[in-house]
Amino acid sequence: MGGIGKDLARKAQMLGMDVVYHNRTRLGDDEETAVGARRVRYVGWADLLGGCDVLSLNLPLNERTRRLIGKREFAAMRRGVVLVNTARGAVVDEAALVEALDSGQVGSCGLDVYEEEPKVHPGLINNPRVMLLPHMGTWTVETQTEMELWTVANVRSALETGKLKSPVGEQKDMAE
Q1: What is the rounded CA–CA span in Å between residue 152 and residue 114?
Q2: Which residue in 50, 52, 62, 73 sits closest to 24, CA to CA?
Q3: Which of 28, 29, 10, 27 is nearest to 19 (CA)?
Q4: Is 117 a catalytic residue?
Q5: Is 88 an active-site residue?
Q6: What are the pLDDT digits (tens) for 48-104?
Q7: What DSSP element (H or E) covers 106?
Q8: Annotated catalytic residue within 39, 67, 78, 135
Q9: What letter does residue 111 receive in the DSSP assignment?
Q10: Which residue in 32, 73, 88, 121 is the catalytic one?
Q11: What is the pLDDT of residue 3?
Q12: Which residues lie below 8 Å from residue 13, measured CB to CB, with a gap of 6+?
């Protein structure tokens, strides 16, 4: 669970939600406990899909995650699940999502990323159980400035020490 997932877990717990997660690497017990007042619980992929009332996708897009959520995964979910994708659009097969919404398998969804941006699947546009927003989480001058400063510091750290301030999983051997 990365920074976005941890932040979301804290907010969900404030709303009284129990939090389960799946990640390529499980957090340590101390790290799970530190996420919030209640301990978050790591589960396998099948248990995550079948056990959630709300599924929030917070993961990178790569060859393993492209269309990670499709017909088979929707069929494994609880009927009426709420899907939130603020990660990358191509993580979800939008045609399969439209079918799952039309059948009631997915009760509703919220998206700010789309499989073929800037195009949005027509079956999502007029569906009253779908909330579509532009991906604008970093569109402020302050956030853009902080991101630029962080990037420069990260590059400087990599060049000077061989370590990164914010490595992703594939770069974990370069962590500060």
Answers
A1: 29
A2: 62
A3: 10
A4: yes
A5: yes
A6: 999 999 999 998 888 888 999 999 999 999 999 999 998 899 999 999 999 999 999
A7: strand 106-111
A8: 135
A9: E
A10: 88
A11: 80
A12: 19, 35, 36, 37, 38
Of the pLDDT bands very low, low, confident and very high (cuts 50, 70, 90), residue 47 is very high
3-state DSSP call for residue 21? strand
Higher model confidence: residue 25 or residue 67? 67
Query: Distance between CA 83 and CA 110 in Å, rounded?
Result: 6
Question: What predicted TM-score, i.e. pTM, was given to this entire model?
Answer: 0.78
Q: Is 22 among the catalytic positions?
A: no
Q: What is the mean pLDDT of residues 108-124?
A: 92
Q: Does the pLDDT value for residue 37 go beyond 60?
A: no
What string of DSSP letters covers 22-66? --SSPPPHHHHHHT-SSPPEE--HHHHHHH-SEEEE----STTTT
Active-site residue identified among 117, 146, 148, 176: 117
Tokens of 88: 């990358």
